[in-house]
Amino acid sequence: MYLIHVRLCRPADGEPLAEMPGKILAEALPGEGVEHATVHVLSGREVVVGLFLRLDGLAVAEETALEVCSRVLDRHATGGFVVVSASAVPIWPFLDL
Asked: Could you count the other beta carbons within 10 Å of the beta carbon of residue 15?
């Protein structure tokens, strides 16, 4: 399981995208391993999409997160957001092993 943060930006301030997590889950294909999606608002222009993906490999998870978010941005009205970056967030320090 990987937590990938995909950073989205847009040219002007706007309302938060409350429906974005649902759109991500709806657009994710069965083999893409998307388990959960959330959106964290950084400002009126920037958000971070958090995706938990159950996949074999970090590079595949980052690529898949980009693909899913890009698909949502292409298919839905999302207020002018574009993908800026995608990177893994280390979660193992928080796990009680």
From this structure: 8
Q: What secondary structure does DSSP assign to the chain, as a single string? A: -EEEEEEEE-SS-----TTHHHHHHHH--GGG-EEEEEEEE-SSSEEEEEEEE--S-HHHHHHHHHHHHHHHHHHS--TT-EEEEEEEE--GGGS--
Q: How far apart are CA 35 and CA 28, in angstroms?
A: 9
pTM, full prediction: 0.87
Sheet order of strands, 2-9 included: 34-41, 46-53, 2-9, 82-89
pLDDT at 61: 94
Residues in the chain, total: 97
